[in-house]
C-alpha cells in the first residue's frame, strides 16, 4: 500500500529516514559498507533543507491527506520513469503513478531526483482543466524509488490515437488544438515553457478532453526579462530552430511545436519524418537556414495559414497562444479542403 515499490511497504516521512532499518539490495556486488554509504548519501540528499533537490518541500499531498493505493498495470514508460495505473484502496478511484527507480550511482540519483523534483514543483501549483492534475509524491522505505501520483486519463495519448486512426479530421484538430492552446496559454501566463510539446505528451480522455502532461523538460521563468534558456530540450521532430541552434528560447518555442502538432494531427506522422527517422539528421534539417517542414497541401486555407504563422523561423514573429485562439481556424467553420492557399512561411 502507499508506494508501489513493494506492496508490503509504506511510504515514510522524511524526518523518519534515519530510523528506517536497512533492506538488502538486488545488486549483491555492493558490500555492506558501500550500501550503508550510499544509503547515507541518499538520506542526506532527500533531507537537506534549502537544497535545490530537497524532498521535504514536495512531500506534502496536494489534498492534505495521503492517498492509500496499490499498483496495477504498466501503462507507459519514459526516459526517467515508468507509469502505472493504480487503485485508491479506500475509494476505488483510479490514478496514474509515475515510478522513478533510483540507481546505485549517487551522481545519477542526483540527476534523476532533480528531474523528478523539478516536474513536481511545477505540477503541484498548476490547476487547469487541460493540465494533468498532481496529487502526491512518496519516497519508499528503502530510499530506492519515488512515486508521483497523477490524474489517470484512460483514453491514452494523442500519439496512440494517431497510431490507431492514422490522421484526424479538421473538426477534431480544431477541438484538440483549441484545448492545447488553452493549456499552453495558462502555462505561459504563469511563466512556464513546456519545452517538450509532442503527441506522446498530450493525453486525451474518453470524452475528448485534452490534458498536457510530462513537465520534466519544462522551465519556469521567474522573471520574464531574464536571459533566454539556451539548453537543448525537447524531441527532435517538434523542436523549434532556436532551440536546436541554442540561440535562446522562450514561450514561442512551444508555438512552433504546436504548429508541428497541427501537421502531425492532419498527416498522422510528425513533420520531418517523411525525410528522415534519424534524430541527428532531423536536427540538422531544422537548424538549416530557411528550412521548413512540409505543410499538408490538402488542408483548408485557414489551417494552412495557421500552420504558417506558427512556423515562422523568427520566434518574435510567431503569435502567442492567446492570439492563435482568435485565428479564423478556431472562430469560423471553414474546413473545406481547398489547397489554393497562398500563405507563406517567413
Automatic annotation (TrEMBL):
SMART domains: S_TKc. ATP binds at residue 98. Residues 69-330 form the Protein kinase domain. It comes from the Eukaryota. Pfam families: Pkinase. Belongs to the protein kinase superfamily. This is Protein kinase domain-containing protein. The lineage of its organism: Eukaryota, Sar, Alveolata, Ciliophora, Postciliodesmatophora.
